[in-house]
TrEMBL record:
Organism: Rhizophagus irregularis
InterPro entries from the UniProt entry: Glutamyl_endopeptidase, Peptidase_S1_PA, Peptidase_S1_PA_chymotrypsin
Lineage of the organism: Eukaryota, Fungi, Fungi incertae sedis, Mucoromycota, Glomeromycotina
Keywords: Membrane, Signal, Transmembrane, Transmembrane helix
Protein's UniProt name: Peptidase S1 domain-containing protein
Segments traversing the membrane: 6-23
Length: 292
């Protein structure tokens, strides 16, 4: 065999072997089933916080003893019906129940793309959420504006999502939603340890202090995040209902700006995980959602 050809093969194999991030499965998309006027105020009040996380990538998250990170609590909230985060309502086609998560608007050329946890979008084995709507600035149990979600994109391996994040496309017919709500920039390479991040969600329990924890108002926690294996974590339970909520580096409370570096995936006492973003996967998910 040609020595030059063998040399090039070795280079390719070396790159593949040493690559920290690769798209492990297939990017799939779905245009959601939407029923007109499905979400009444009563259904929103009775929606259940989604907590299940069955990511097939969990098995690679080998944990070691962690040092406690410095924690800074914050109860800063400012009501504005047009903000780049909110409550995400949807119907689970698997069990027939209504749930809610947290989602955010991210900066894209399309202008109508959101980010949330994959387990809020896709139930596995071809089962997707339906009747999804986004309420930016959901506050005190009130949805100031309800934005239908046209569809979403996730990465799957053997019928299940792999990394617990995905993209949603808003069915917004007045231009770009990000121009109305504002949006977060995104960063797929923030480093292993990131100081000054803010996690936002709508929990009904958990360990965020100075927070109503009733699922009706946003809770915000500020502190540091570190990497552990294939996940990023913060040292507290952000609570049920915060799934999909953005983790924002250098969050500006006044202008609602910053850089999303992660999203709430799975919580337990003293810890909440976020997937590690891969630029390749992140941009592919974004691109596929934009085409819906």
């Amino acid at each position: 065999m040609n020595e030059k050809f063998i040399f090039y093969i070795l280079i390719v194999l070396t790159v593949i072997t040493n690559s920290k991030y690769m798209v492990a499965g297939s990017i799939i998309t779905k245009v959601f089933d939407i029923e007109d006027a499905y979400w009444t105020p009563e259904r929103m009040r009775n929606a259940i916080p989604l907590t299940t996380n069955e990511s097939k990538n969990n098995k690679t998250n080998y944990r070691t003893k962690r040092d406690q990170l410095p924690v800074k609590e914050s109860n800063i909230t400012s009501y504005n019906p047009y903000v780049p985060y909110g409550k995400l309502f949807f119907h689970n086609t698997g069990d027939g129940k209504n749930y809610f998560c947290t989602a955010s608007v991210i900066r894209t050329e399309n202008g109508n793309i959101g980010l949330t946890a994959a387990h809020c979008i896709y139930n596995g084995n071809g089962s997707w959420s339906s009747n999804m709507v986004f309420c930016p600035g959901y506050e005190n149990g009130q949805c100031p504006v309800s934005i239908p979600v046209k569809g979403g994109s996730v990465e799957v391996v053997d019928g299940h999502y792999y990394y617990d994040y995905g993209m949603i496309k808003f069915n917004y017919d007045q231009g770009k939603l990000q121009d109305k709500t504002g949006c977060f920039d995104w960063d797929t390479n923030p480093g292993d340890t990131v100081n000054n991040i803010t996690a936002i969600g709508y929990p009904v329990n958990g360990e965020i202090k100075d927070c109503k924890r009733d699922g009706n108002s946003p809770c915000k926690w500020n502190g540091s995040s570190s990497r552990s294996g294939s996940f990023r974590y913060v040292p507290l339970n952000t609570g049920s209902g915060s799934s999909g909520g953005p983790w924002i580096r250098q969050y500006d409370y006044k202008n609602n700006t910053g850089w999303v570096i992660g999203n709430t995936s799975a919580s337990k006492s003293g810890s909440t995980d976020s997937p590690i973003y891969s630029f390749e996967e992140f941009t592919k998910l974004l691109h596929e959602a934009s085409k819906l």
